[in-house]
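To whoever is on call:

I kicked off a structure prediction for a single chain this morning and the downstream step that reads the tokens threw a length-mismatch warning. I double-checked the sequence; it's 221 residues and nothing unusual in it as far as I can see. Pasting both halves so you can look.
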Amino acid sequence: MASKKVTTPEFWNEYHASFEQGLPSSVKETSFVVLDTETTGFDLKNDRILSIGALRIQDGTIKAKEAFEVFLDQTTFDGRTVEIHGILKKGKTTKISEVEGLKVLLHLLKNAVLVAHHVGFDVGMINAALKRNGLPKLMNKELDTAILYNKILPRSKRKTEGHHSLDELCAHFNISKTDRHTALGDAYITAIAFLRILEKLKPVSLEKLLKKDRFWEFWKY
């Protein structure tokens, strides 16, 4: 019996098609998309994304005009996390559906290298949302600023699991925490930290930069 062909929406098809071009060989020519998600909790199966913030880095510059932050309608909500992210279930902030939020993200993301702090968690949450909407997993190469930061520290200060908090990076690089714990605010902080890390690592080859990272299977969905 022939397998049933799965029809995917046009926005996914455009995202998928962007990978036909492949990635450039140099870091300078690579497009990076830095993102952050605010969520109802840390359970990849049962918790949900509250908001997504993302921005693009190209040739060492943050493309502020391409940045976005979206807030998603909530079917699952945990009021105990409001103190952290400040997002109310029925607040005045305009909210869109989960699938519309994914559509906005994939339009910016395309075949860029995805960067996040503890990237496995954010990717896991996004993949869970994609699965709920009948879509495949993200296809992008990933970089984790927590792990890359660990690489630039003296050996005496490195952590076995590379589990450095974003607050640690803010303190080390003297980055303002004014918008900490908002999706776009944390994405912007991560982007600045990522650029500072690149200044230290001075990578020329994208392949070598990707090899400096590794993934935490704990967060894989």
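Update from on-call: the warning came from a stale cache, not from the record. Cleared it. Sanity check on the structure: The chain is about 35% helix and 15% strand.
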